[in-house]
Specification:
five-stranded antiparallel β-sheet, three-stranded antiparallel β-sheet, elongated
């Protein structure tokens, strides 16, 4: 009888010990899970890297797979025009010169320019039909142009302010898609948008 009581007490003691260990382990796991998000919080620099670059963003897109070379030209107030032959100025940079299907691994037809900061004054956006080849020869090429603005260094999103589809007909044709005025806060000035032609390829230098 005494031997049976001793065995029962030993089993009960072992069960309690195992329960205590498992509860301690579970508590440790919960504490670690609660602390994980705080061990390496995202820095302001990392958050800034996730924000879309540029303050004024100008994009052009024409039909994918069409072998046309359309050049985007942009000019900020009192600054040199930026395009394929002058990819950077004090304010704007052309991200890529898309030459249609020439030396291109994808079917995508797309160019974009970004500004660093926002100067108050008039901006100009032009397109130039540099060349057509193959399936683009003799065709009218539609192109969609979008202008977006991120107003200030701390803003995290861009806001589309202008969009227009134009048609390019002849090789070497240059047309003005937009001329518009922005305030220093990035706000579009009411009544300032028009498309009176202003050549930009001739104005690569101030």
């Amino acid at each position: 009888m005494l031997d049976g009581i001793d065995e029962f007490e030993d089993d009960a003691g072992g069960t309690v010990f195992r329960d205590v260990i498992l509860l301690a382990l579970a508590g440790f796991v919960v504490v670690v899970m609660l602390l994980l998000p705080h061990l390496n919080p995202p820095t302001k620099q990392a958050e800034a890297a996730l924000m879309p670059p540029g303050n004024v963003v100008v994009e052009v897109r024409w039909p994918d797979g069409v072998d046309a070379d359309i050049d985007l030209w942009v000019a900020a107030p009192n600054d040199a025009a930026v395009g394929y032959s002058n990819k950077g100025s004090a304010k704007f940079n052309l991200l890529r010169d898309d030459r249609g299907q020439l030396m291109d691994a994808t079917e995508l037809n797309y160019e974009v320019s970004y500004s660093r900061g926002i100067d108050a004054g008039e901006y100009t956006v032009n397109l130039h039909l540099y060349a057509t080849r193959g399936n683009a020869t003799g065709r009218t090429i539609p192109a969609d142009v979008v202008v977006s603005v991120k107003g200030g260094d701390t803003a995290s999103t861009t806001k589309q302010i202008l969009a227009r589809r134009v048609a390019l007909i002849e090789v070497d044709e240059e047309l003005t898609v937009f001329r518009f005025k922005l305030g220093s806060d990035g706000q579009l000035k009411a009544g300032s948008v028009h498309s009176l032609f202003r050549p930009l390829r001739e104005n690569q230098k101030l």
